[in-house]
Amino acid sequence: DSGVTQTPKHLITATGQRVTLRCSPRSGDLSVYWYQQSLDQGLQFLIQYYNGEERAKGNILERFSAQQFPDLHSELNLSSLELGDSALYFCASSVEGQTGELFFGEGSRLTVL
Amino acid sequence: GQSLEQPSEVTAVEGAIVQINCTYQTSGFYGLSWYQQHDGGAPTFLSYNALDGLEETGRFSSFLSRSDSYGYLLLQELQMKDSASYFCAVSNYGQNFVFGPGTRLSVLP
Question: Residue A1: pLDDT band by 50, 70, 90 thresholds?
């Protein structure tokens, strides 16, 4: 158990819909990261937050948005869903300082039909 | 931008040694990490190099050459449970992590 909690674990929805994925980082971790992993693909970096502020942005679509709240949990909002958005979405957190280590949640598997 | 290259697949037998290479191009490089991911699971951290040289953690070792923008993960005494995907990831000064495409390791009996 990494200490990072993601909900829901599985989500099935239809094209055009909107979903929200939630992540609670490990206690004390200020940084939260979101990654997308399509079937048999690598981990595509979406966005990073640090203590409520956006720190870095990757290849995140305009239909996607995220935020980190004062209690440090984060939400990833996916709207106008398309079939190609079906993927495993991982949240990760890290401690302060350069340790090279990310702690990943178990992921939210999104299926768009 | 940032780019990383890894072999897509590697196959080895139990008890053998395997090396997974990673080359990268990035700005503001700080360190190179390695992660293991079993099918359907979450990535888990294996090793990290910020300085040139070899880091050893049990059966796993990782190497970094900053001047060559190159690193590798060395797995010794392979076991069946080592069959998984392995990802290298570069981090920069902002602690932003970008992952490579991954290497699928198959360990045969």
Answer: confident
Separation CA B24–CA A30 (nearest Å) = 27
Tell whether the torsion through CA atoms of A46, B34, B71 and A29 is positive or negative: positive
Query: B97 contacts in A (CB within 8 Å)?
Result: 33, 45, 92, 102
- Provide the pLDDT for residue B28: 86
Exposed e or buried b per residue across A10-25, where buried means at least 16 C-beta atoms within 10 angstroms of its C-beta: ebebeeeeebebebbb
Position A41 confidence tier, pLDDT thresholds 50, 70, 90: confident
Asked whether the CA dihedral A19, A65, B99, A100 is positive or negative, the reply is: negative
- d(CA B66, CA B74) in angstroms, rounded, equals 17
Enumerate chain B positions whose Cβ falls within 8 A of a Cβ in A: 30-33, 35, 41-45, 48-50, 87, 89, 91, 94-102
Query: Mean pLDDT across the stretch A72-78?
Result: 97
Among partner residues A50, A58, A102, which is closest to B45 by beta-carbon distance?
Answer: A102
- Check residue A40 and give its pLDDT: 72
Strand boundaries in chain A, DSSP class E: 5-7, 10-13, 19-24, 31-37, 44-50, 53-57, 64-68, 74-78, 87-94, 103-104, 108-112
B22 CB neighbour count, 10 Å cutoff: 26
Q: Which among B30, B41, B45 has the least Cβ separation from residue A98?
A: B30
Neighbours of B7 (CB within 10 A): 15
